[in-house]
Amino acid sequence: MARKLMKGNKAVIMGAILADCRAYFGYPITPASEIAETAALYFPPLGRTFLQAESEVAAINMVYGAAATGVRAMTASSGPGISLKQEGISYSAGAELPIVVVDIVRGGPGLGNIAPEQGDYFQVVKGGGHGNYRNIVLSPNCAQEMCDLTILAFELADKYRNPAVILADGYIGQMMEPVDLSIREIWKPEKPWAVDGTSRTQGNLVSSIHLSAEELEVHVEHLFKKYQTVQANEVRYEEYRTEDADVILIGYGVVSRIVLSAVDAARKKGVRVGMIRPITLWPFPTDIIRKRAESVEEFIVAELSTGQLIEDVRLAVEGRKPVRLFRRTGGMVPSAEEIVSILEVREGVA
Amino acid sequence: MDMVVKEKAKSILDQYKYKPGPDKESTHYCPGCGHGNVHKMIGEAVDELGVADRAVLMSPVGCSVFAYYYFNMGHIQVAHGRAPAAATGVKRAQPHTIVMSYQGDGDLAAIGGNNILQAANRGENMTVFFINNAIYGMTGGQMAPTTLLGQRTSTTPRGRTRANEGFPIRVCELLASLEAPVYLERVALIDPKTTAKARKAIKKAIQMQVEGRGFSLVEILSPCPTGWKLSPPDSREWITKNMLPVFPLGVYRDRSKEELPPVEEPKLETVAEALGIQTGEAATIPKPSAPLRETVRMKVAGFGGQGILFLGEVLAEAGMQAGHRVTWLPSYGPEMRGGTANCHVVISSERIGSPTVSLPNVLVAMNRPSYERFVNDVIDNGMLLYDSSLIEGVPVPERLRSYAIPATQIADSIGNTRVANVVMLGAYLGITGIFDREQALNALRLHIRRTQLLDLNEKALDAGMKAASPKK
Ligand SMILES: Cc1ncc(C[n+]2csc(CCOP(=O)(O)OP(=O)(O)O)c2C)c(N)n1
Ligand code: SF4
C-alpha cells in the first residue's frame, strides 16, 4: 500500500526521505515536534543523520554546515524557534546555500500559544532575517502537499541555491489525511561549489562576507536577479470557481480549506464567489490576482493574522478593487459558516 | 617572536586568491598578532598528516573571519559563535572530512558558549583551535569572557571587576568537567619553547580526529598587540605576566593512548522498506463499493485516556481503505492535558474543504462535559451516540437521532475499560453500516500498536455492533 493515512507533520519527513534529504537537525516545539520525532525514527536506519540540537540557533547552523557540504539538509520549528533561526537563514541566503526550513505556525507574539495561527507570514515571507534576500515560501493545505511541497522545496532550494521554507499552520501539521508515498523521480543537481572534503572541491569557499561596498553590491544584485528569475518561473496557485465570480476569497493553508467549503456553501445560496489560493507565498501570485481584479467586484482576504497576507494582495490589486480583511487570531479558526455569513451580508441575503 | 624558519606549508597558499585588492601575499593581521602563527602551524600539521584534501576549516566571526584567505582547503565561513554547530553539520553529513573550527574567545566563550559546550559534550569528532587573546580584536578591543580582572578594554574602561563582569572563563577547565572530550590542552605563544609545544598540540589535536577519537580543543594564549595597545615583544611578556597565572598551561585531557571501541557497521534499510511500500508501487485508490449517502462530519469527544483520537483515526483509516476522502483533526497540546480530548473526522465522496467540524452531523460523546459542550452544535436530525454508562440523566434533544450505548459497561464486561472507544465504534458501524466488520478490523489492525490487544479489540467491536439499538 503506497497510500497511507498520516499527519501532515509526518508527511513532511516522508517527502524529505523521498527527496533524499540526508540530515535533519531540530529542537522540540509544539506543534512541530512530530517532524523531529518522525525524522528521529526514520532517518538513522536509512543511514541518514538525525540530531537534536541544543537550540534552534544551533540547529539552523548545523543545517548550514551540512548543506555547505552539498547534501540536502533540513530543520523544522514553530514561531519562536523560527525567530531564532533567522540569522542562520539570512547567512544561508547570503552564502547561497540550499536549505529547507519548515514552520508549523502557532499563536504569537511571544510565547503566545500552540494553536494554529498565520502570524509568521511576515517573518517568513518578507524575510525576517537581516539584509536583502528572499525565501522561497511554499504553503501546503493538506497532508499530501506537506509531502509533495517538501520535495519541491528541496528541488527549488537546489535549483536556486536559496533557502526554501514550508509555511504551514498547526492544523495542517496535526491533521491526518491519505498520502501517496510512491517512490518518484527526484531532480538533483551536481554541486561543484560544495565543500565536501574531496580534492575535487579543495579550496572551495562557502561564505556570505563581502567586505568592500563594490563587491557586496555586485553580490546583492546577483541575488536580486536570481529572485527575479524565481518570480518569473515559480509562481504556483490554485483557482477555484473564479470564472464568473463577483467576489474572490484569498487564503492559504488551513484557511483555504475552510474557504473552499464556504465557496461551495455560498454558491448553493446563489452567491457567485470563488477562491484563489497562493501555493507559493513568495513568489506571490500577483499576476492572476491582478487579472481577476478586472472582473470581480471585490476581494476578501481571509487569514489567521491581523492583516499580513492582505498586504501582498493589495500590492497585486493596486487599488483597482476593494480588498477586505476577514481575520481570526489567537488560535481561533473560523468556520465555513462564519465566512458564508459575511458573504450573505454582502449580498443582502441575510 | 623567533620562529623556526621552515619551508612554507603546502596547504598554505602562495597567493591569497580570495583576498580582495592587489596585495595577495601579506596577511590581513596586525604585526605581532598570534593568528598568523597559529595558521602556519595548522598548515604544517595538515601537511604532515596528509589530510589537506579532506580538510574543512570553519572561519568564525572575529579577526580570523578571513582565515579562508590563507589555506588550500575547503572553507566554510559561519555566523558569530556558531562554528561548532556548523562543524557538527559538516562532520555528520561527511564523516570523512577533517573539520577544524577556528574561534576567538568572544566567538567561542561568549556568544557561542553553549555551542562549544554541547559539541564537546556530544564528543563530535572535530578539532577546535581556540584563540584566547583576552579581548575582542575585530570590533576594536572590547571585553571578552577571558578578559582579566582589572584589564582595561573599551567596554571596561576602568578595568574588569568581579562585581560587574564576573571572572574570566577558563575554557579548558570547563570542558574538562565533561566526559566526552578526548584531548584538551592550553598552550601559549610566548617564546620558541612554548611555541614548539603549541605546534605539537595543534598537530595532535588533528591527529586525534584522523584516528576517529572525538572532540579535541587546543586553547592558545595569543598576543593581540593592537587590542592591548602594546608592542609585540611587550605583548608576549604580558601573556607571561598576566595571563599565565589565570590560564595555566598544560594538558587537561588526553585519551590518545586509549584503545578505540570497534566500529559496528549498521544494517541499513532501503527507502521502500522504511516507508513500508514496494519499490515501483503506485498509490491506488480503491473504488468505493457504494457512494456515501452523505458526507460524515463527525465529532468524537471525551476525556484523555478514553482513546478518543484513536476512535477517529480508525474510522478515517476505514474510510480511506474504502476509497473515500477522509480527514482527521485532533485537539492537541495542553487542551489534551486539561483532561478532555476531541477530534473531527470527515468522510466524504467529494473533495473535503474544511477539516474542522463546527456543526457535526454525528456526535460521539464519551463523557458528560463533552456531551454538554457539543450537543447543541449537532445539526437537526443529526446523530448522537453517547456513553450511557457515564452520561446519565441528561436531557436528550428530540431533534436528534440518539443512541445510548453503555460502552464503558460493555467494555468492563469484556475485561478492559479502555476498549469502550472500540465498543462505540462498533455501535456506530452497527447503526449506520457505513463499513462492514472486515473493513473495520483491517483499520484497527493498522492502528493498534500492541498486537496482543487485537483480540480484545475485536471482541469490543462485535459487542458494540450488537449493542447498537435505537433508544426511545
Ligand atoms: C551576532 C553578531 N554579534 C556581534 C557581531 C560583531 N562582532 C564581530 S567580531 C566580534 C568579536 C570577536 O572577538 P573574538 O571572538 O575574541 O575574536 P578576535 O577578533 O579577538 O580574534 C563581534 C562582537 C557579529 N558579527 N555578529
Ligand atoms: S586586532 Fe588583535 S587579534 Fe585582531 S589582527 Fe590585530 S592583533 Fe590580531
Walk me through this protein's architecture.
The complex is a heterodimer of chains A (350) and B (472). With 350 residues, chain A is α/β, with parallel strands linked by helices. In chain A, 41% of the residues lie in helices and 22% in strands. Chain A is built from twelve helices and 16 strands. In chain A, the strands form three sheets. In chain A, strands 2, 3, 4, 5, 6, 7, 8 and 14 form an eight-stranded mixed β-sheet that branches. Chain A has a five-stranded mixed β-sheet with strand order 11-13-12-15-16, with helices on both faces. In chain A, strands 1-9 form a two-stranded antiparallel ribbon. The termini of chain A are far apart. In chain A, 59% of the residues are buried. Chain B is an alpha/beta fold. Chain B has a seven-stranded mixed β-sheet with strand order 2-1-3-4-6-5-7, with helices on both faces. Chain B has a six-stranded mixed β-sheet with strand order 9-10-8-11-12-13, with helices on both faces. In chain B, helix 3 (105-111) packs across helix 4 and helix 15 (420-432) packs across helix 17 (454-467). Chain B starts with 33 loop residues before the first helix and ends in a 5-residue tail after the last helix. The interface between A and B is large, with 84 and 77 residues. Bound molecules: thiamine diphosphate and iron/sulfur cluster (SF4). Thiamine diphosphate (TPP) binds at residues 61-64, 80, 104-107, 131, 133, 135-139, 144 of chain B.
